[in-house]
Amino acid sequence: MAQYKSELLRLLDERGYIHQLTDAEGLDALAASQVVPGYVGFDATAPSLHIGSLVQIMLLRRLQQAGHKPIVVMGGGTTKIGDPSGKDESRKLLTAETIGSNIASILKVFERLLTFGDGPSDAVVVNNDEWLGQLGYIDLLRDVGPHFTINRMLTFDSVKLRLDREQPLTFLEFNYMILQAYDFLELARRYDCRLQMGGSDQWGNIVNGLELGRRMEGHELFGVTTPLITTADGAKMGKTAAGAVWLNEDQLPNYDFWQYWRNCDDRDVGRFLRLFTDVPMEEVVRLDALAGSEINAAKIVLANEVTRLVRGEAAAKLAETTAAATFAGGGLGEDLPVLHLGPDGMRIGAALTELGFTASGGEAKRKLAEGAVRFNDEVLSDPGQVLTLDEGAEARLSLGRKKHAILKR
């Protein structure tokens, strides 16, 4: 590990957040001498972020833990355009009302993970529509446009990916990098923001922003990116066969959220404890060294700690209790996902897909053929079977040893 003077970079380095730094020595000196306001931007394309965004939220938490000021930038303006980074196709354009509703929903998670207020290191939330929505198009072109060349913009991965695959990149999306760069300039003006942080796919956008701030107003700005977070088997963080792992309870039940972490690959436990929890490093090292069946204790710590931070103490305790009742006692834990059957019942394949246990009817058929599906303790194999219950009754539907749900009538 590098030898940093500032608590901020020591903390980020020790826990595995640093992928790229624009000027490590300059940022280290600044963070060692004063409170540094730093931001991460989040577009509001859905009512919840998923765990692929959690590392960026934790970056803001680490910034605050090191005594600096987090700025949460909600992309009320940029969401109207859509970030092309890492996307194969254009996003559907959202209305202002939908974007506003999404922002209100997304912020619930930040309220758990950051301390907001008026103090020097208290977090603040800003909406980039405050300034982007006021920009006159001609003024923007005249003032900011000369600092961007089409030649260079065409070299960015977000543009090259779309062009290489012969997928359309709209002129609207092409402007996204200019507006994100302008965000950094405006935040420097309004909040003396000196640092932008983001995932590795944001490196070009971050560099654009700090160069714009230097060219237009002589600001000394800095950037940090995190590595692309993948699971040990190479899958992108936040995606499962059943869909995204959402941070908000409205999009994913607490038990399912807890189970995602409890079921992670043994090889990921130590890294995830570093990135997504406040467990002290000495304890992380001890837990990461556990082997065989003992690693399950570390996974439970991971699941409890992440769920406590993101969903609250009560959610973590209930999920753990439910898991213990389900696995050890064979009972029906009260926090399991629930599916209500109508008087005519539901086909087994539809029930599995509705619960998110399988991604499609085809996958449900395969799991049934493998003997992996149980209704209470009875193994089911017929994809045409209809599950029915008497009025007021309930039963357990299981896929393998790790996925369980309560069926009710």
TrEMBL record:
It catalyses: tRNA(Tyr) + L-tyrosine + ATP = L-tyrosyl-tRNA(Tyr) + AMP + diphosphate + H(+). Coiled coil: none annotated. One of its GO terms (biological process) is tyrosyl-tRNA aminoacylation. It is found in: Cytoplasm. Gene3D superfamilies: HUPs, RNA-binding S4 domain, Tyrosyl-Transfer RNA Synthetase. Its main location: cytoplasm. L-tyrosine binds at Y39, Y176, Q180. ATP binds at K239. GO terms for molecular function: ATP binding; protein homodimerization activity; RNA binding; tyrosine-tRNA ligase activity. Pfam families: tRNA-synt_1b. InterPro entries: aa-tRNA-synth_Ic, Rossmann-like_a/b/a_fold, S4_RNA-bd_sf, Tyr-tRNA-ligase, Tyr-tRNA-ligase_bac-type, Tyr-tRNA-ligase_bac_1. The keyword Ligase applies. Keywords: Aminoacyl-tRNA synthetase, ATP-binding, Cytoplasm, Ligase, Nucleotide-binding, Protein biosynthesis, RNA-binding. It is an enzyme of class 6 (ligase). The keyword Ubl conjugation does not apply. A motif ('HIGH' region) lies at residues 44-53. A motif ('KMSKS' region) lies at residues 236-240. GO terms for cellular component: cytosol. Its EC number is 6.1.1.1. Belongs to the class-I aminoacyl-tRNA synthetase family. TyrS type 1 subfamily. Homodimer. This is Tyrosine--tRNA ligase. It comes from Qipengyuania algicida.
